[in-house]
């Protein structure tokens, strides 16, 4: 079983290792990851695709790829200050000192979703409550029963 961290690592370190952080590369990173997610979806998996996708246009292009019953945009809201304070790798510090260009929230924009199907406010809500909200949303949206299987 893959965790979301594993998927991010697989896509950035493997499938998308030739991509940087320009708007074009971010868009291509998201497109490729969505194609992999679509393959898993086609064989019956419920797929969570955790991506930092700063541009609405790129997210909209991915949305076109999927049926509305198979996709939900979940916005994990957190201020840049909190993201920076909780950054385990020190990437914000590196970006602020010019060592990492096109870093979202530092020298690259982030366009908030207009109508996400779910917003998790991680700055004002506990991890436990956000997790509970996410599980309940996924269970309802994708009609998953208590055994973790999709209802027929």
Overview of this protein structure:
The chain has 152 residues and is mainly α. The protein contains six helices and two strands; from the N terminus they run H-H-H-E-H-H-E-H. A two-stranded parallel sheet has the order 1-2. Helix 2 runs parallel beside helix 3 (56-65). The chain starts with a helix and ends in an 11-residue tail after the last helix. The model has no long low-confidence stretch (mean pLDDT 85).
Q: Which residue ranges are poorly predicted, with pLDDT under 50 across at least 5 consecutive positions?
A: none
How many domains? The number is 2
How is the largest sheet built, in terms of strand order? 1-2
CATH arch. level architecture of the largest domain: 3-Layer(aba) Sandwich
What's the total number of strands? 2
User: How would you state the average pLDDT, rounded?
Assistant: 85
Approximate helicity band: 40-55%
Structural class: mainly alpha
CATH H-tier superfamily of the largest domain: P-loop containing nucleotide triphosphate hydrolases
β-strand amount: 5-15%
- Number of discrete helical segments: 6
């Amino acid at each position: 079983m893959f965790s979301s961290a594993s998927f991010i690592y697989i896509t950035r370190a493997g499938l998308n290792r030739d991509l940087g952080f320009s708007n074009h590369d971010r868009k291509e990173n998201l497109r490729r990851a969505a194609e992999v997610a679509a393959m898993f979806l086609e064989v019956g998996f419920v797929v969570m695709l955790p991506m930092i996708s700063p541009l609405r246009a790129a997210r909209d292009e991915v949305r076109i790829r999927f049926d509305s019953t198979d996709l939900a945009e979940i916005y994990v809201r957190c201020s840049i200050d909190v993201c920076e304070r909780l950054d385990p790798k020190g990437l914000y510090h590196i970006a602020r000192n010019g060592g990492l260009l096109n870093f979202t929230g530092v020298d690259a924009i982030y366009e908030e979703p207009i109508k996400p199907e779910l917003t998790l406010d991680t700055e004002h809500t506990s991890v436990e409550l956000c997790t509970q909200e996410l599980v309940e949303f996924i269970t309802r949206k994708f009609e998953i029963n208590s055994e973790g299987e999709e209802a027929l």
